[in-house]
Design brief:
single chain; about 250 residues; alpha/beta; Rossmann fold; six-stranded parallel beta sheet; 12 strands; about 30% helix; binds NADP nicotinamide-adenine-dinucleotide phosphate
Length: about 250
């Protein structure tokens, strides 16, 4: 019998959880525990880290998992790298459910940097009004560029106020609309958007809004990932899960 562990925290993972529940496939959805009140799910949920590669491999064995689906965010590189190694150790089939990266159109004004440090370095410029659309995890790094006024958008109210000298905070978990994000950029007179190349439709509204208003974007490229089996469509992953027999064959 198939028994799936789905590493979540994304819209696509939630969509696959719904498909698994509807298809009667045994599955557990795993959250890191970063948000205070994750959306209710139609499959059992577990929350918290596994304790690295060894911890995850132990979990896979103990819970007799046959298939590990990595549906984490494209920037969750540690978890994704651990998932590949742990699946190999435990002899469990592995697949990543991911999303294609965004590509700029001719109307976009993107500059690209490799990582957060690159984004911080690129902001060594006179004061700007910046939509820092990175979630709350990397905000502290931008203390190194205190001259800017930052607009932050978080899913939850933070426990500690962000350490930036000039900021405004919007608490909203989306989904965001293009009209809504055009209004946000206009209301706050934003003249630069800083974001990660997450891909997908859920977070794309700010890019379309920036395009419409001619606002430049500082785009942080995805971290490199080891070679892995991956698909972009939850329905295709379900189909693969229903037909894959590699774990049963001990491949
Ligand atoms: P990360 O840096 O790759 O992972 C750090 C550690 O968090 C992992 O080593 C693992 O701990 C634990 N972890 C991460 N995802 C987990 C999951 N789904 N279930 C159980 N443990 C998990 O990850 P991150 O960038 O902090 O992202 C954490 C979560 O937020 C992920 O679920 C991701 O999908 C979601 N998310 C991330 C971003 C982003 O921009 N990075 C954006 C939206 C959503 P152990 O080593 O102890 O197992």
């Amino acid at each position: 019998m198939r028994n799936v562990l789905l590493l979540g925290g994304t819209t696509e993972a939630s969509a696959l959880a719904a498909l698994l529940a509807a298809g009667g496939v045994a599955a557990t959805l795993s959250y890191a525990g970063r948000t205070q009140s994750p959306r209710p799910q139609p499959v059992p949920v577990r929350i918290g880290g596994f304790g690295g590669i060894g911890g995850l491999a132990g979990y896979l064995r103990e819970h007799r998992i046959t298939h590990l689906v990595d549906g984490t965010h494209p920037f969750a590189a540690t978890m994704s790298t651990n998932a590949i190694a742990a699946a190999r150790l435990a002899g469990v089939a592995h697949i990543a459910l991911t999303r294609p990266a965004w590509v700029p159109t001719e109307e976009d004004r993107w500059s690209r940097v490799a990582d957060i440090a690159g984004a911080v370095a690129a902001l060594t410029v006179p004061p700007r009004r910046i939509l820092l659309a990175l979630g709350r995890m990397h905000v502290d790094a931008f203390v190194a560029q205190p001259q800017h006024r930052y607009l932050l958008r978080f899913v939850d109210v933070p426990d500690q106020p962000p350490p930036l000298p000039h900021y405004s905070l919007i608490v909203d978990r989306g989904p965001f609309t293009v009209d809504g994000d055009v209004a946000v950029l206009r209301d706050h007179a934003i003249d630069l958007v800083v974001c990660k190349n997450a891909g997908g439709s859920g977070a794309e509204a700010k890019l379309i809004a920036a395009r419409r208003l001619g606002v430049p974007v500082l785009m942080i490229d995805r971290p490199a990932m080891p070679e892995r089996h991956q698909m972009c469509d939850p329905a295709a992953v379900l189909d693969w899960l229903l037909h894959d027999t590699s774990a049963e064959r001990g491949v």
